[in-house]
Amino acid sequence: MNSSHLSHKGFTATQTPARVDMKIYFEAMENLYHPDQNPSGALPMNVAENHLCWEMLRERIQKVTRENDIPDWVASYTDPSGAPTFREATAGFLSKFLFKVPVDAESLAFSSGATSVIEMSAFLLANPGDTAVIPAPSYPVYTGDIGVVPSVKRYDLQTHVEVTELNGGISISTELLEKAKSDIESKGSRFKILILTTPDNPTGAIYSEEQLRKIADWCIQNEVHLVVNEIYSLSRIDISHPELTASYPNPIDFVSFGKLMAEYQSPYLHFWYSFSKDLGISGFRVGLVHSHNQDFLDAYRNAGMGHSISNFTQWVMQEVMADHTFLEAYFTAYRKELTQSYLIVTRALRSMNITFSPSYGSLFVWMDISRFLGEKTEKGEEKLWIDIYENTGVLLTPAHGFGHQKRGLFRMVISGMDHAALQVAMDRLYSYFTDK
Ligand SMILES: Cc1ncc(COP(=O)(O)O)c(C=O)c1O
């Protein structure tokens, strides 16, 4: 009962945790594994953190504050969509490392993390009660980001059942989009936004350029906003590694949607990015949207002040984003580390006969452990998830909320710990699953 005099939304929020695994995650963090001091400690693999090259980035960030005085503008208000110098530096970064075409700094708007950017975009692009379609499985927190404030509904578009069906990519066709549209309209809502994540969370799959073009054409024709979230775009696995090539018989080339947007110049196409994953600085809270829709950018600037990033963060990061020599070295080292993490995990899964989706990138491995479920329901999933944690200390992401039709598929974060700890996690899972 709403006895605390909150709004309807406020009361609903008291009953709706942002993530169902937060409490257990903090508990695991209190009892973290350490090879000498806590060898039986917990190994949280549920939150999408990347700690693989933090030392390298920390060094570069500290150089900025060590060698420079804080400029005067940092102490005052600036453009709510991002300080002009920070926007310029980030436009240069996107152009060089992702889009491979020039990027106009005026086409970017920043907020505190992709989370804010997603919320703001949904709020500005759709009306309450409209629907955003998202191919399943996908990031559980999208539901709250588009739902809590903007009141936009999530529609999980089922494109496949088994993880093995992802070997050739995500089979999202215009027929499937048409079907979703009539389904949504028959329920009295409107298909207003399509959200694609590439590389995908949790599957690690990517969309080919041809697919992106077909989907973009359909969206423009149907006046649907297409947003491509490339938050994992530089977290790519080296699929040319000799141990991995066989898993990608018809490899898909990664092409940034930003490159296609430069060509289309359509008001219906948008792009999201954040520094949380590729750079592993989720705590800095830097997210951005890129768009050629001037009305959207104007509205974003006028309505987005409450979400802006601190100038101190923008100043420090503009220095790092402008240092392309450092970033080249960082991403080369990071890609090697991430590929090694992926190898450790996938070797272990193969030895346990557990199938998984071959990943092109992201911080995850998406696996099918449905054969270990007691009952093939959400309750059964929760029981298995807790049982794994209680017996191994390995905390996977709960299956609930990814929106996929098959039960028993779980996500494992592979980048939150060093390789030695990751191997310990895999050894514990091996004992658990082979004893079952
Ligand atoms: C697909 C996706 N979008 C957005 C976010 C949130 O990112 P941020 O930390 O920048 O808010 C995440 C974090 O896991 C994510 O996986």
Report on this model:
With 436 residues, the protein is of the alpha/beta class. The protein has 2 domains: 8-55 and 327-435, Aspartate Aminotransferase, domain 1 (Alpha-Beta Complex); 77-323, Aspartate Aminotransferase, domain 2 (3-Layer(aba) Sandwich), CATH 3.40.640.10. Helices cover 41% and strands 13% of the residues. The protein contains 14 helices and 12 strands. It has helices at residues 8-14, 22-30, 54-67, 84-99, 113-125, 142-147, 174-186, 209-221, 257-264, 294-303, 311-321, 324-351, 378-392, 419-435; strands at residues 43-44, 108-111, 131-136, 153-158, 191-197, 225-229, 269-274, 287-291, 355-356, 364-368, 394-395, 409-413. The strands form 3 sheets. Strands 2-8-7-6-5-3-4 form a 7-stranded mixed sheet, sandwiched between helices. Strands 9-10-12 form a 3-stranded antiparallel sheet, covered by helices on one side. Strand 3 (131-136), helix 6 (142-147) and strand 4 form a beta-alpha-beta unit. Helix 4 (84-99) crosses helix 11, helix 5 (113-125) packs across helix 10 (294-303) and helix 12 (324-351) runs parallel beside helix 14. The protein is globular and about 60 Å long. It starts with 7 loop residues before the first helix and ends with a helix. The model has no long low-confidence stretch (mean pLDDT 96). The structure holds pyridoxal-5'-phosphate. Residues 48, 113-115, 139, 197, 201, 229, 231, 274, 276, 282, 287 line the site of pyridoxal-5'-phosphate (PLP).
